[in-house]
Design goal:
10-stranded antiparallel sheet; 10 strands; 2 domains; alpha+beta; Cyclophilin; about 325 residues; single chain
């Protein structure tokens, strides 16, 4: 009889999760479709409506990826906690997520989480194999989150617009201009055929740029920021744990700035105009100055896609 080791089990889990993530990279997951159309098998939502469940679950998916899985992954890699201790932290943090997400129509996701917890409890489990499987789980959840964000009815925000007189004072930019030097990439948006060149900031964040390049080429759904102003973002297949030396406030970023958000979805962000968030984000690079003029019109299409018509706009990233 062949004994299946923990290593082979974890490798199998990682492979299954990577296949799942790849299968929904360009195809809407059934779970998201059912959630946004009220077709979940469990009767959820009060008073015969399902919007409250949709809204709650969208927030749960986002926070599960950003505030549970990614921090736990960093603990597993960088802290002095044992694998069992890290798994216990994960179990405590995600208990509420698991029950609610399973109830809302995500049993596949929660089943993989339980399998990873079970593997972590085994004395012979290889921590490196467990970390690799955790990265695969995060990739999968990020893909679910990407589709959840895309189809959420952000246009409802138009009913809660602030009076024009309530516009805040402009934010003063006191940062020094950043010069990006490193490998070059091309970003192309279909079906519009808009293509720009960009330089990665290897001189500022070498490890981050290296890890990002390892995920190139890729093609993912492009979406728009909903709180930061004129920025577009897309969930990449990368899982970066890189140490970041250079960050920049979102509101200080010039048009054409590329950022990378490790902690909130492994997203590549392209600024194309005025931004308002005062949080700082890792600098990934900059669009060629002569190509920046192509971004504002594209940004309008992406905003319309995210907020209203839900058109699929695809971002293709390749190395030059």
């Amino acid at each position: 009889m062949t004994t299946v080791t923990s290593k082979s089990t974890l490798a199998s889990i990682a492979a299954e999760l990577d296949a799942l993530a790849l299968s929904i990279q360009e195809t809407e997951p059934e779970e998201i479709l059912n959630l946004r159309t009220g077709a979940t098998t469990v009767r959820v939502g009060n008073e015969e409506q399902y919007f409250t469940t949709w809204a709650t679950t969208a927030g749960l998916l986002r926070d599960y990826a950003a505030r549970t899985l990614y921090p736990v992954l960093r603990l597993a890699v960088f802290s002095e906690l044992t694998l069992a201790q890290t798994a216990n932290v994960m179990k405590e943090l995600e208990a509420g997520y698991n029950s609610l997400l399973s109830y809302s129509g995500f049993p596949t996701l929660t089943s993989y989480t339980k399998r990873l917890q079970a593997e972590a409890a085994q004395k012979h489990t290889d921590p490196d194999e467990w970390i690799a499987a955790m990265k695969s789980l995060l990739r999968y959840v990020n893909r679910l989150d990407a589709w959840s964000h895309h189809y959420f009815p952000w246009y409802l925000g138009e009913h809660f617009a602030k009076p024009v007189s309530d516009k805040p004072e402009p934010i003063v930019n006191t940062s020094e201009p950043l010069k990006c030097e490193g490998p070059q990439i091309r970003l192309t948006w279909q079906p519009y055929g808009i293509s720009v060149r960009a330089t990665l900031a290897s001189n500022l964040n070498e490890q981050l740029c290296t890890e990002f390049l390892e995920s190139v080429p890729f093609r993912v759904l492009q979406d728009h920021a909903v709180v930061a102003g004129e920025s577009m973002f897309a969930w990449t297949p990368a899982v970066s744990l890189a140490s970041v030396q250079t960050r920049e406030r979102v509101c200080d970023a010039p048009p054409g700035r590329l950022r990378f958000q490790q902690a909130t979805g492994q997203k590549i962000v392209v600024a194309y105009g005025t931004t308002t968030e005062t949080v700082s984000s890792p600098v990934l690079g900059a669009v060629f100055p002569e190509d920046v003029h192509l971004l504002p019109q594209l940004g309008k299409h992406v905003m319309e896609s995210t907020f209203r018509n839900k058109e699929h706009i695809w971002l293709e990233v390749t190395a030059l």
